[in-house]
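Progress report, Aim 2. The chain analyzed during this reporting quarter is listed below.
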Amino acid sequence: MKGPRPLGIVIKLGTSSIIDATSHEPLIATLSLIVETAVRLRKDGHRVVIVSSGAIGVGLRRMDVENRPKHLAQLQALAAIGQCRLIGLWDSLFSHLRQPIAQILLTRNDIADRTQYLRAQNTFAELFDMGVIPIVNENDTLAVEEIRFGDNDTLSAITAAMIHADLLFLMTDVDCLYTKNPRQHPDAEPIEVVDDINALEADISTPGSALGTGGMSTKIVAARLATSAGVTTVITRSSTPDNLVQILAHIQATQGNSLLQKSSSFASIPAAAVPSASSMAPSLSGSTTLTKPPLHTRFLPWPEPVRDRSFWILHGLAPHGTVFVDQGAYQALVERAGLLPVGVVDVEGPFSENDAVRIVVVDRKPAASADGTTPAITTPSVVASGTEVGRALVKYSSTEIARIMGHRSRDIQGILGYVTSEYVAQREYISLFRRKDSRPASPSLRDKERDVAHHHQNHHQRVSPNQKAATVAVESPLHKVEGLALNSESSSRDEPSA
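Predicted structure tokens for the chain:
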């Protein structure tokens, strides 16, 4: 019988997961378990990527610096010192199991350029074909505020979308999300499965560590981004990375139809000839008994994900300005029309031709009638005024759009003296965020988990879109997380950028 197909798996590790916060020494025991787990997954034929922070933390140890500095130049210098030692440590550990690795350092500029984005995709594909495990980090030595991802949670989500991954594991210092702070509230319930992040009511207040920049809220943002690209996202404890194997087996058993049959443009690769570590259990594909998995939170992917160019426009590009459109123009965009100048109400810049911009819907002020008293009929509101609904690459600069907005396309020649396009933005270069009512529940998953419930006791809280939810008009993975209980879970540890 044919086993489950190989999957694309991204494992994200923050500085606090692999570097001691006090001594800045690498946590060799944890790193070794991560290496063994990654090699085991590769042995089972999966495409594995590790997104590893820790360069600045390792640099602090190398230079005997006690505290993370504040100045950018000092941070970049420490990142340069630490990154070579960090990748050397990874290479040394993987070499014991004869597993080749590769280093990939990215900035948002690398993602923003479409050609470089596609080249990065091709590089990942070639590395997978060669049986290599890529180790990804942000290039902190070159990155400045304008071109930073901000944290490696976001970088891991973008990487997962870029390679069409099936699973993203966000490793942290807690087991999962809770409805309340379990240290302060004995009745706090763990949240096992999240169907809709907008309906999530959880404790996400875990701040970043002294060495890092991340926190639980950044993981929610990353989960929004990854699930919108069709990637199942899991939050689980980093100190027991071998739990990933059990969690993966559980997901394969309970989410099979939506996960295992997902199509991918990356070819499945044969298992590499790597030796088995003594601590490795039998192959995942040989497991037939469903047992209770380690505690974790799983975010289900969107059934109709945003991928490739649409994802790149939404999340790979930094917007340079805003184009405000009326309700009628937005409705036309939903129906897959381009953005015409007549539908533009205002513009905020400056930006140039071919720059990325936000698209924000506003209510157009009704024009007065001939007698100056009765307002004309306006287009009914489709979304709340002021809502960002998507991103686009524009054909005109902000100055040009300010001159042609509200006019018919046939008038552009007379206004500007030339015509670049009849559209402010062509439809193939417009990508819209998901509307909140397009996210269905997952009855098939619930039914399947109910069928196998006799294998384990279910102590976990399920979150459904029918629960009281935050009111968000558009599903934007990079929007501020709303409607979530902010309680303190851990004040000393979590994920950094470098």
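The first strand starts at residue 8 and ends at 13. The chain has two domains: 6-255+293-297, 318-365+384-430. These observations will guide the mutagenesis work planned for the next reporting period.
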